[in-house]
Design brief:
Length: about 800
């Protein structure tokens, strides 16, 4: 069957080639040789534009024998076409010497006036601002094919599925049919009614959330392939772009053709292209945008006019990526596409995951068409997720697709689909995606067991080298439950520590798990952990190395996790802890000294991300876009007299995290955390402020690795509190692009803490409170080489020390990009 289709395709191609003439070419400035972007090419009643590099590709019908080429400020040319001609280089002569300088200035001013008016009228022209409700259906076809040139993808772990396809040189074919609903309050939401990814046994849901074809160019930040570009109609457009009038179109709805080009490419990611702006309403009728570098990224948007609302609505967008001929890297998928190996900023772990050179020859095409557009439909999707994948979407037959495709599949499309089915299997793409997803969360899968990478090796002052292994069973054992645990050994204290547990998966979609655990290990005194804190994978735990104040813990716990809403995850845990001291410490209460004691505790924890965006699939809820601020909270109640509990107490914790990302690639991070404890709380279960400086004389002797929210100049065991408030502020500047291996980021840091303790006499060892307020400032130069960098911090204010050396800390930094 495949051979028959291929033969038919070849016969059709032969017929087309003899009835049409394909002309490729380039349009250049006669004097400078510079390419002329978006020059107009007229042929036989049709019209086309050259690309950013001046290149063009058109098809002439049999009777067409000439081209008319024009560009603003240049003398037009008419070119005769001879039979057999396939390539044409056209040089236009500047006519600028014939123009009055006043006219040139007027044109520039006119373009600026038109763009200013278009920005001013966005509330009347942008459907999301003008309309309270609307809906439409959408058909998207997404294809990745092997081409004739070599590309590779460097990026992080935000969309490992499609990146694995690209980096493996595999063919990919997917179709999606969706219903979109918009409301003023809830924004634009998508219900996926049909989804087909050729060759995959399990659907690649991440491609559903991939922003291949954004809604319109009205957005302030125009997102394409998970990368934000400055919008040409943003309020800062004149700061980021220069504009020029190329032409004015004729017809029922004439339009200004405005060329836009980035001004600050090294600072702000920008597109280069043309906007067709209605001469009456200044709305976008059509848009073309491109990026040229190691690849050619091309975007073509079409809009449909609705006379009843005097509104142009997005109708169709085609996005393509082709091999380029420049060294400049192009930013997509949250990283960059360029020639070379697979890692974003050459991270060490990526070299392990995807070592060596690869040779995928990739052409990527995505076509998205909106139809059955209803500007007043008040229906909504009854879910808080941005994207909802219908359970029936995965089982659609060919009849469904024939009824919902906006255009039939070409023979070439069908051949690509069949090839994708074979190549995905041959290259083990599903297995590679599963492996990389596991690695990105900190696990290394081997058969039925996922080894936890953070358990193999650690070091601290008490245990010495901490060797061991740990992990959990995966779906090869069971989809209904998993077993987990670890076993470690300290070479200095010569003691085995271990954990064993199980998680019974009651409901996969709501992440409802029943957990049972028994642990025998050591815990840092004064540490505080949120049960629903995000499990961020880290090979290095900076503070762990210098910790020297631990206690022994034997704990039996039972708990349940549940997602009450798309953005709200909770966990309830009951635990019975037997505590014994490693250091000489006693808790003094009611004329009794406690070194060993029992805690009976109930803990409720939550993680709430009201501004994040989620995708709801038949079996899970996945976060597709981080949103800030996010909130993590916890309350614990210790009860005496029940299960041998010795103390009554209540503990509260709340952490608020916020991040501001800017189009110039800088970002500012805020972390505000408060802790409060009342009742009979021993020092082991009070709070410290995450100190990260060993108490040694000499700056170099205190040299250590910086943490994310630790105080780098605060000595271990210097402060303890039963109530405290901490604020961390970091501002990261845009990376210095010195070399693919050397792209350091300058970060300025300020940290502050204040706290107190009600009954210090209850504790047998001396320490300070944070009553006067603790302050430190720092600077880091991160990711100098392979994720490693340098930093320094200085403590000042009421708790500053007499000697300068004691206030100063010098640090390694390590940030791993997956």
């Amino acid at each position: 069957m495949q051979r028959s289709l291929l033969l038919l395709s070849l016969l059709l191609s032969f017929f087309v080639c003899h009835s049409q003439q394909q002309i490729n070419g380039k349009i250049l400035d006669e004097k400078s040789g510079e390419p002329l972007a978006y020059a107009k090419i007229k042929f036989g009643g049709q019209q086309s534009l050259s690309r950013i590099d001046g290149s063009f590709s058109i098809e002439l019908k049999e009777k067409q024998d000439s081209l008319n080429i024009s560009y603003v400020g240049y003398i037009p040319r008419k070119i005769q076409i001879t039979k057999g001609l396939s390539y044409l280089e056209v040089k236009l002569r500047p006519a600028i010497e014939n123009l009055d300088p006043v006219v040139i200035s007027s044109r520039k001013r006119k373009a600026k006036e038109i763009i200013a008016e278009a920005i001013k009228r966005k509330p009347q022209n942008d459907p999301k601002q003008k309309l309270k409700h609307f809906s439409f259906k959408n058909y998207t076809k997404f294809i990745v094919e092997n081409g004739a040139e070599i590309l590779s993808l460097e990026s992080d772990s935000t969309n490992l599925g499609i990146k694995t396809v690209i980096n493996s040189g595999a063919t990919y074919f997917s179709e999606k049919h969706s219903q979109f609903y918009f409301s003023e309050k809830k924004g634009l939401k998508e219900k996926v009614e049909g989804l087909h990814t050729a060759g995959f046994k399990k659907p690649v849901y991440k491609t559903v959330s991939l922003t291949v074809n954004p809604f319109s160019l009205y957005a302030e930040d125009y997102e394409i392939f998970e990368t934000d570009y400055a919008g040409p109609l943003d309020k800062t457009a004149f700061k980021n772009y220069s504009f020029k009038i190329l032409d004015t179109t004729a017809g029922n709805h004439p339009a200004y053709v405005i060329y836009f080009k980035p001004k600050r490419e090294k600072v702000v990611a920008g597109l280069e292209g043309v906007l067709y702006l209605d001469t009456t309403s200044y709305a976008i009728q059509r848009a073309k945008a491109q990026l040229l570098g190691a690849v050619k990224l091309e975007i073509d948007q079409e809009y449909k006019y609705f006379a009843s609302e005097d509104l142009w609505f997005p109708k169709k967008q085609t996005t393509t990526i082709r091999p380029g001929n420049r060294e400049k890297a192009i930013s997509v998928f949250g990283g960059v596409i360029s020639t070379g190996t697979v890692q974003k900023k050459k991270s060490l772990l990526n070299m392990v995951i995807s070592p060596g050179k690869i040779n995928p020859k990739i052409y990527l095409t995505s076509t998205s068409t909106n139809f059955e557009i209803n500007l007043h439909n008040k229906n909504e999707i009854q879910t808080s997720a941005k994207i909802f994948v219908s359970p029936a979407a995965l089982n659609r037959d060919e009849k469904f697709w024939n009824n919902n495709r906006t255009e039939p599949l070409s023979i070439k499309n069908k051949l690509t689909r069949e090839r994708a089915k074979r190549v995905i299997s041959e290259k083990d793409i599903e297995e590679k995606i599963a492996f990389k997803n596991s690695i990105s969360t900190g696990y290394y899968p081997v058969g039925f067991w996922d080894f936890k990478l953070g358990k193999f090796f650690k070091f601290n002052n008490y245990e010495g080298i901490r060797l061991g292994f740990g992990g959990k069973t995966n779906e090869k054992v069971s989809k209904k439950f998993s077993l987990n645990g670890y076993l470690v050994y300290g070479t200095k204290d010569e003691v085995f520590k271990y954990n064993i547990g199980t998680a019974i998966h009651l409901d996969q979609k709501t992440e409802t798990d029943l957990k049972l655990n028994y642990t025998r290990d050591i815990v840092e005194t004064g540490s505080y952990e949120y049960l629903t804190g995000e499990n961020e994978f880290s090979i290095i735990e900076p503070r762990f190395v210098n910790i020297n104040f631990f206690y022994n813990r034997r704990a039996l716990s039972a708990g349940i996790t549940h997602r009450f809403a798309t953005n709200l995850k909770t966990e309830l845990r009951l635990s019975h802890d037997r505590i014994s001291q490693i250091k000489d410490y006693q808790f003094l209460l009611n004329d009794r000294e406690y070194s060993n004691y029992t805690l009976a505790e109930a803990t409720l924890s939550f993680n709430w991300r009201p501004f994040a965006k989620y995708m709801e699939t038949p079996g899970s809820i996945e976060m597709i876009e981080k949103g800030y601020p996010k909130f993590t909270g916890q309350i614990s109640k210790g009860i005496s007299g029940i299960f041998d509990g010795d103390f009554n107490y209540t503990k509260f914790g709340l952490m608020v995290e916020h991040e501001i990302k800017r189009i110039n690639q800088s970002r500012t991070e805020f972390i505000l955390e408060g802790n409060y404890a009342i009742g009979e709380v021993p020092l082991t279960h009070l709070y410290h402020a995450l100190p990260n400086s060993p108490r040694r004389k000499g700056i170099l002797r205190r040299y250590s690795v910086a943490g994310r929210r630790s105080f780098e100049t605060m000595f271990y065991n210097e402060f303890f509190s039963d109530k405290q408030l901490m604020l961390h502020i970091k501002h990261q500047f845009r990376a210095f692009n010195l070399h693919p291996l050397v792209q350091p980021e300058l970060v300025l840091i300020t940290r502050h803490a204040i706290g107190d303790i009600a009954n210090p006499q209850r504790h047998s060892i001396p320490f300070k409170s944070l009553k006067k307020g603790y302050h430190e400032a720092g600077v880091e130069l991160q990711k100098i080489l392979l994720g490693f960098g340098l930093g320094a911090a200085y403590r000042y204010g009421p708790y500053s020390l007499p000697d300068f050396d004691d206030n100063f800390a010098f640090k390694f930094t390590f940030h791993l990009d997956l």
